[in-house]
Design brief:
This protein has 74 residues and is an all-beta fold. It is built from no helices and five strands. It starts with 9 loop residues before the first strand and ends in a 5-residue tail after the last strand.
Length: 74
């Protein structure tokens, strides 16, 4: 069971990667900036090169490019 999504939670955002495959799709840390529904949120994605704001992002149970998911438990 997943916790409820709320503003300020840390989640994973799966990057899109590049169409040609030069840059693979990888997980990035993200902070929830707004909750649009139980499966759609706004994110501030933290990249090594800087921040990226995603105003609307869908949830996925498994890592899927362009979606967010809960980080795995350690």
């Amino acid at each position: 069971m997943n916790p409820p999504v709320t503003v300020g939670r840390i989640v994973h955002y799966q990057s899109l990667g590049s169409p040609g495959g030069e840059y693979p799709s990888v997980p990035r840390a993200a902070i929830v900036t707004q909750v649009l529904s139980t499966v759609e949120v706004g994110l501030c994605v933290l990249n090594p090169e800087g921040m990226y704001f995603r105003p609307s992002c869908q949830y996925s149970d498994t890592p899927k490019a362009g979606c967010w998911n809960w980080p795995p438990r350690a």
